User: What shape does this take?
Amino acid sequence: MSGIIRSGAVLAGLALVSAAACGTTHENAPGASGTAPAAKTCHGPDGKYRIGMSQANLAEPYRERMDDDIRKAAAGVPQFSISYSDAAQDNAKQVEQVNTFLTQGIDLLIISPNEATPLTGVVKKAYDKGIPVLVLDRKVDGDAYTSFIGADNVDIGRQAGRFVAEKVLPQGGKIVELKGLAGSTPAKERADGFTEGIAGRGITILATADADWLRDKGQQQADALLKAHPDAQAIFSENDPMAEGARIAAQNAGRADLPIVGIDGLPVPEGGLKAVEAGRLSATFIYPTGGAEAVAAAKKLLIDCQPVAKTQTLSTRLVTRDNAAQVYAELNRS
Assistant: This one.
């Protein structure tokens, strides 16, 4: 009997050593200091890994850039094979696409959820299976994921509010606001932050409208807002495409000089940085896609067998006409 006990103890010890060597734990339990553990599928640099990238909606230029940033970063990791899907702003479709990835046996999921609550269940399903889940830009409910990678949307909204209060309407005034997709976390967080940023500065938000992050809908909603509120002195848009749509609406209303502030700052010819440089937008705030950071986190989990931070907060930057060209050049050198 004592020999059996000793053998069992040796086997248990070997199992513990083996688990420690790869830094993995079952069920994706959180590690110390706010980190998530390495993937149980980690096989080091000699492994081959299938990654599923579930995108909310490729009709948004920001999300096209996110996928492009992932492709660019993944090109330097030959062990990775990445499949991409586009939910086209359809929650049910995105759930189905993630389930398909799980059926295909992916080793890691990257997802930018269309809306938080409808995607929470399938993200948790992947996570509970032991598949690392990297959530980009938009959050899900709860904490059943490996790592969230994105900027602080409340802070960005707050900075936008302060810019409007200090530079656009320093004496106070009236504005209208274009919001993103109602069920997505950045829409609420940017709105909350903006309200904080203008608090106590004599600025009134006359009305808001949801434009789902889309340029065409931004134009339609801004047109309606400006007709209903011709005394509006500025527009805050929660992203640059809606802001560009709002610029067209303002021009059509005979108000081509109306100040408009956006968020995203994509360093592409049709992006917010060039819109600011050209004077179509008064300002924008850089909102990194997190694509390169997601690939780096996947490499750390799957190849290096190391844990990653539960939250990775990306930095932002105010862009005005004074620095738009410089920032554009800097971001395209990286």
